[in-house]
């Protein structure tokens, strides 16, 4: 029982943290442009091109 | 950079639409190109919406941003006011979905221990924990359903959300009671699982609609948006379409579209009214005559005094006709709601019958109620709620990859029922733009072709552009020219190796043609004509084989309709006004037909809105794009039979899904009525039937072939 008393709050806390992260991401506009985000990884960020 | 602009407190934001962006390379080019404009502090592309948001100093003009983009090969437009920040249908569903999924996973974790035999105080603790997570989550995530169910009930109707809401609410209430008395079964996991599945289905559906709308919006913005206005002092200013007022004088260059109705005050030209009336032959107009908004100036620059602008134009009449006819469509009841009309009373009767039956059999009121609730929960339309949206999402995804954008799921349902199709001619069966006669282009020798291409590339006239495109596609290279000059209304004149060359309008202006002259060589007459869309004959044949009778309904003259009708083997009606087109569709519907309208022009707007379903090509006018249920972007007309075939396949799958969901109920309901269903069985049955329905729907991924 004592293990459960620790594990349950931990499980709930982790879950809530994930939910909080999702809400933050949504408010922050991370889901505004899924297609662009998928393509942006292909861009070269280096300004000084060869 | 030493001339770094000082950070100004009042930076401005401009959103531009760049329809041609489609890859990472384009994104990089657009962002780098705009950042290089002095005064621009940042540029961020949104590839999903095909837009770029630019933050810049107030001094930076929109024109310089547009020309910077044009310089790197991207055509862009300002986003129009009414398109700003389109409300996304997905966003309001994402948060409830996340909450429901989070709560479901945690409650399920606790439920598994209960199912595996947790007893006594552990089970009570786990039930309380489930309630702690489940009740607020259900209250929050269930709101989309509760609200829609309440809205339906208040107006005395019912929809799919009513049985869903009742099932969820009752399950939650019973579980709370069970928990408080330390009972064996709590149903929080089942209710949350139901919510998660249903929300996922709706979010997918909304995502597809958002995507289709973004696609249509990016096509929309390509129409006439403004005009160059000549001031009293002769100054030229660019005025947006919505700011044009009667009395202003617009200067319309050749190849430009009019943004408002008006009277010609200087110059004379011919106007292409095909978008407005379907008439393909250019209409000449001179000083004192009327020129209409939406028509294309073909020959020479003219000055037009605005007589009606904005909502007062000829378009307003068409808009009124359209408003009247959209009511037809809003009266359509979607199949899911029709199903729930039968389903909800059946389920609620069954639940009531089991309560009464168990009471009669001598059970306590509490036992009877628990069994009644179990019936409600087990029949809660998990698979039924997914049956329609998932099939439609998969099918519209397949169609979108094939170049057909569908504005909403009900369009697929309506399209599946049609047995009669009416086609506009100009711009729908045909491409709507004049193309040079291929025989003449093929007959030109290499020198003629290269001179013609060089001359054509110096003009923005629609015929020149069409000729340049046709010649470039045959691999012709432009010849070097000297002293090129374009004479408005006459043509392009130049010197080639010391010889006078010209691409000019023919002396006798009958039909659409231009003349190529090279020194003393015989003149070559290049005739232009509107051509049939590729695949038109094939598409009509396929529609016939599918049992859809086709005919032509055009605003063009009967003489112009006849050859097209003959080529395609169709009957055709010409010279139909917008109201007559609408009437023709009304008559067909009266006689029991389900009518599909395929059209593009302003004159088709009321007909598109009045028909049971409507499709417009991507090249259609704004009115056409907005009135149609579906838009196809590639040039082939085969998109039409493909869309119909896909919609019919979708309805087949939807019906199979209903059969699967009902079959599941046939097994589960007797168990529930017998009092044998536990939360474990309910969870397994719900997820099992949902997975089967989703898997069946995925077969539609190839529906658009």
List keywords for this structure.
heterodimer, A: mainly alpha, 66% helix, elongated, B: 705 residues, alpha+beta, Alpha-Beta Plaits, 5 domains, six-stranded antiparallel sheet, disordered N terminus
Brief digest:
The complex is a heterodimer of chains A (50) and B (705). Chain A is mainly alpha-helical and 50 residues long.
Structure in words:
The complex is a heterodimer of chains A (50) and B (705). With 50 residues, chain A is mostly helical. Chain A has helices at residues 2-27, 34-40. Chain B is of the alpha+beta class. Chain B folds into 5 domains: 12-79, Alpha-Beta Plaits (2-Layer Sandwich); 91-216 and 332-384 and 679-702, no CATH class; 226-258 and 260-308, Calcium-transporting ATPase, cytoplasmic transduction domain A (Distorted Sandwich), CATH 2.70.150.10; 393-431 and 533-647, HAD superfamily/HAD-like (Rossmann fold, 3-Layer(aba) Sandwich), CATH 3.40.50.1000; 433-531, Calcium-transporting ATPase, cytoplasmic domain N. Chain B contains 24 helices and 26 strands. Chain B has a 7-stranded mixed sheet, sandwiched between helices. In chain B, strand 22 (549-553), helix 19 (558-568) and strand 23 (571-573) form a beta-alpha-beta unit. In chain B, helix 6 (161-180) crosses helix 11 and helix 7 packs parallel to helix 12 (382-401). The chains are: A mainly alpha (50), B alpha+beta (705). Chain A binds chain B through residues 1, 4, 8, 11-12, 15-16, 18-19, 22-23, 26, 31-36, 39-44, and chain B through 23-25, 27-28, 45-49, 91, 94-95, 98-99, 102, 105-106, 109, 122, 129, 133.
């Amino acid at each position: 029982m004592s293990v459960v008393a620790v594990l349950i709050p931990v499980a709930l806390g982790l879950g809530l943290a994930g939910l909080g992260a999702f809400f933050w991401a949504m408010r922050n506009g991370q889901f505004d442009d899924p297609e662009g985000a998928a393509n942006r990884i292909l861009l070269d960020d280096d300004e000084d091109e060869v | 950079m030493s001339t770094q602009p000082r950070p100004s407190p009042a930076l401005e934001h401009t959103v531009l639409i760049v329809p041609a962006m489609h890859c990472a390379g384009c994104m990089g080019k657009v962002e780098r190109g705009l950042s290089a404009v002095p005064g621009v502090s940042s540029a961020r592309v949104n590839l999903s919406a095909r837009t770029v948001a630019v933050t810049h100093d107030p001094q930076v003009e929109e024109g310089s941003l547009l020309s910077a983009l044009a310089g790197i090969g991207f055509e862009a437009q300002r986003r129009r006011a009414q398109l700003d920040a389109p409300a996304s249908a997905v966003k309001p569903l994402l948060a409830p979905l996340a909450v429901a999924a989070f709560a479901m996973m945690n409650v399920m974790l606790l439920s598994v221990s209960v199912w595996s035999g947790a007893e006594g105080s552990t089970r009570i603790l786990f039930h309380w924990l489930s309630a702690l997570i489940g009740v607020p989550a259900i209250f929050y995530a269930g709101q989309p359903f509760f609200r829609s169910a309440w809205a339906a009930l208040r107006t005395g109707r019912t929809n799919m959300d009513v049985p869903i809401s009742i099932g969820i609410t009752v399950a939650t209430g019973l579980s709370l009671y069970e928990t408080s008395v330390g009972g064996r079964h709590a149903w929080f996991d089942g209710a949350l699982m139901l919510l998660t599945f249903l929300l996922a289905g709706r979010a997918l559906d909304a995502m597809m609609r958002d995507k289709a709308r973004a696609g249509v919006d990016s096509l929309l913005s390509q129409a006439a948006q403004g005009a160059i206005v000549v001031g009293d002092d002769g100054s030229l200013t660019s005025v947006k379409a919505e700011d044009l007022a009667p009395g202003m004088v617009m200067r319309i260059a050749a190849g430009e579209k009019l943004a408002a109705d008006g009277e010609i005050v200087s110059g004379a030209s011919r106007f292409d009214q095909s978008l407005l009336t379907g008439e393909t032959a250019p209409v000449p107009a001179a000083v004192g005559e009327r020129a209409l908004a939406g028509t294309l100036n073909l020959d020479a620059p003219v000055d037009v005094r605005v007589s009606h602008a904005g909502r007062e134009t000829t378009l307003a009449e068409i808009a009124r006709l359209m408003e009247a006819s959209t009511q037809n469509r809003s009266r359509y009841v979607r199949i899911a709601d029709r199903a729930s009309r039968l389903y909800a009373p059946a389920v609620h009767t069954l639940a009531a019958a089991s309560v009464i039956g168990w009471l009669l059999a001598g059970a306590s009121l509490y036992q009877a109620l628990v069994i009644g609730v179990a019936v409600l929960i087990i029949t809660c339309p998990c698979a039924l709620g997914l049956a329609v949206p998932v099939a439609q999402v998969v099918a519209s995804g397949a169609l979108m990859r094939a170049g057909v954008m569908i504005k909403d799921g009900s369009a697929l349902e309506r399209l599946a029922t049609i047995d009669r199709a009416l086609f506009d001619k100009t711009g729908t069966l045909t491409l709507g733009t004049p193309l040079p006669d291929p025989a003449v282009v093929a007959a030109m020798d290499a020198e003629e072709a290269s001179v013609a291409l060089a001359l054509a590339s110096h003009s923005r006239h629609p015929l020149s552009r069409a000729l340049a495109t046709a010649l470039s596609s045959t691999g012709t290279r432009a010849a070097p020219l000297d002293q090129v000059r374009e004479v408005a209304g006459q043509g392009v004149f130049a010197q080639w190796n010391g010889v006078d060359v010209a691409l000019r309008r023919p002396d006798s202006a009958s039909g659409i043609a231009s003349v190529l002259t090279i020194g003393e060589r015989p003149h070559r007459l290049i005739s232009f004509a509107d051509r049939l869309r590729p695949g038109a004959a094939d598409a009509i044949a396929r529609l016939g084989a599918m049992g859809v009778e086709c005919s032509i309904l055009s605003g063009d003259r009967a003489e112009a309709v006849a050859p097209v009708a003959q080529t395609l083997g169709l009957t055709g009606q010409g010279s139909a006004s917008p109201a007559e087109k609408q009437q023709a569709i009304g008559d067909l519907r009266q006689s029991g037909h389900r009518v599909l309208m395929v059209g593009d022009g302003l004159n088709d707007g009321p007909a598109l809105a009045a028909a049971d379903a409507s499709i417009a090509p991507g090249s259609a006018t704004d009115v056409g794009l907005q009135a149609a249920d579906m838009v196809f972007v590639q040039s082939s007309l085969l998109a039409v039979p493909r869309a119909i075939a896909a919609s019919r396949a979708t309805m087949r799958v939807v019906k199979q899904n209903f059969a699967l969901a009902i079959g599941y109920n046939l097994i589960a309901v007797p168990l529930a009525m017998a009092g044998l269903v536990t939360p474990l069985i309910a969870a397994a049955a719900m997820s099992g039937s949902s997975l089967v329905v989703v898997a069946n729907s995925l077969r539609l991924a190839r529906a658009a072939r």
